[in-house]
Design goal:
By secondary structure, this protein is α/β, with parallel strands linked by helices. It has 11 helices and 10 strands. A hairpin with a 2-residue loop joins strand 3 and strand 4.
């Protein structure tokens, strides 16, 4: 098996001299470990003085559930070995942005976050906000790059329509973008015209064809409902379930792979055949959030050939087949979603068209074809930002 060396592995080997002896802030989370499971806090502390810890969504320890605010005020007075902890995922959208005072006393900021390869996963956008804020106060950033767990070749889902940027997609990019966090930051800086000092510490040994289990690196769940690479494999499509009244299986051992509701039309969904996947009928009871404590009918997505499986268009088709069976008038999620009052499904798909077509019971053929063309165009758009 190939052994990929992440930016953190290279830092531990003494190959990042730019932070030596400096006072730094560290944006990281539970999955920020090197090849020996040593956490970034310990690795960086061997080379620099870590003064401030920045925590993204789910918190520094990765224990908070999705969209569960981690109180900024509470964390700012918390101390970990004398270090201040700053939450960048609080009650309000303004809490996503670090303030100038958060950089006081810092010579640099180090970023080490594990992305999962889908536009909606918010860590890359938190990194972008930190870099923008650091640029405004003149603090340089060292970004330690990590693999895209789904590889860097396949692209799925057209970029958002104009006006549909949000915290689940600050820039118009494909859903399954096939980029590393270092590459995405390059794109974000260019588009936002951020004049920042950013050193991207490249990986060694990573090829775009690699899935995470081909890197030789340990998988540590980067968020509470991303337990395995199997979860990440379905997530570009599976996250769409969040935009509906269906349960995405939170609190179960296989979230996003296992989903449904009390009135779910299992037969209609299983009739939609998708290359590289098999749907198995299941029953489950969500432990929290949607349909908590209620017996649900559903399916589990078993990926039989990940090289052929295209999760985004698969779930678009499956959801469209399953929603008409819901016994409610409006089967779309209506609560505030990632600080935004627009329909969550519109933010996830990048526009209102999908929701409108499903509501009308219309054929999705043209929509799916246009989506594939949008993904193909993004393959060319992303090319100047690829560093592997």
């Amino acid at each position: 098996m190939s052994r990929v060396r992440t930016g953190l592995d290279r830092l531990r080997a003494g190959e990042v001299p730019s932070i030596a002896g400096k006072k730094v802030g560290l944006l990281a989370h539970a999955a920020s470990v090197d090849a020996t499971f040593t956490h970034a806090l310990d690795v960086v502390s061997e080379r620099a003085e870590v003064v401030t810890l920045f925590g993204p969504e789910h918190g520094w320890a990765g224990a908070a559930q999705d969209m569960e605010s981690v109180s900024t005020s509470a964390n700012e007075v918390s101390m970990l070995d004398g270090r201040k902890i700053v939450s960048l995922y609080g009650e309000y959208a303004a809490d996503l942005h670090p303030r100038a005072e958060h950089f006081e006393g810092l010579d640099a900021v180090v970023i080490d976050l594990q992305d999962v390869g889908a536009r909606y996963y918010t860590y890359v956008w938190t990194a972008a906000f930190v870099i923008g804020a650091a640029a405004r106060v003149g603090v340089p950033v060292v970004l330690l790059d990590r693999p895209n767990p789904l590889g860097g070749e396949v692209v799925e889902g057209g970029p958002q329509r104009p006006g549909f940027r949000s915290f689940v997609g600050l820039h118009e990019i494909s859903v399954r973008h096939g980029m590393t966090i270092g590459e995405l930051i390059g794109l974000a800086m260019k588009r936002d015209r951020i004049d920042a000092s950013v050193e991207v510490v490249k990986m060694e040994g990573w090829a775009r064809s690699m899935w995470f289990d081909q890197t030789g690196l340990p998988w540590v769940l980067p968020s509470p409902n991303m337990p395995t690479l199997d979860t990440a494999t379905v997530y570009p499509g599976g996250c769409l379930v969040e935009g509906t009244t269906l349960s995405e299986g939170r609190g179960q051992t296989r979230p996003f792979e296992l989903w449904g509701s009390p009135a779910f039309d299992v037969d209609a969904v299983r009739a939609i055949e998708v290359p590289g996947a098999h749907l198995r009928q299941v029953g489950f009871t969500p432990t929290f959030q949607k349909h908590a404590g209620k017996a649900c009918r559903g399916v589990q997505v078993h990926v039989t050939d990940r090289t052929r499986f295209r999760s985004y268009q698969a779930y678009l088709r499956w959801i469209a087949a399953g929603l008409p069976g819901e016994d409610i008038e409006y089967p779309w999620r209506t609560e505030t979603y990632e600080y935004d009052r627009r329909p969550a499904i519109d933010m996830l798909t990048g526009g209102p068209e999908y929701r409108q077509l499903v509501n009308e019971g219309a054929d999705l053929t043209d929509y799916l074809a246009a989506d594939r063309k949008g993904a193909a165009r993004f393959v060319e758009v992303r090319r100047p930002y690829l560093i592997y």
